[in-house]
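B., you asked whether I could sanity-check this one before it goes into the benchmark set. Here's the sequence:
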Amino acid sequence: MRIRRLIALSAGALLTPLGVAACTSEGPGSKTECQASGCTITFDRGVNAKASMLGVEAELVAVNGNLVTLKVAGQEVSVPAGETQPADGMNVSVQEVTPDQVVVKIATGIQTN
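And here's what the prediction gave me:
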């Protein structure tokens, strides 16, 4: 798991000096918008929603009210809406939970100026 984090951090470190502002991708049941500091993932509810960001896999496992369970880099983490929890060296924040989607921010810890 540390290897995945190193890959993510290395990818972020490589992107930062190149001036890459952001990238957007879509996967099964998800849309991901990334910058070097992290990614915002919008998961669709009711489907097998997964996303890949900077070499790290993220998956929406369950939603129970405002409690969201995710699997990030193979580590399961439960995060209440509006809060942040650590997962494999990254910070996972649930920004929004609606009947149709869940919006999550996963911060890499890389600071950009």
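One thing to flag: Confidence is low (pLDDT under 50) at residues 1-20. Otherwise nothing jumped out at me.
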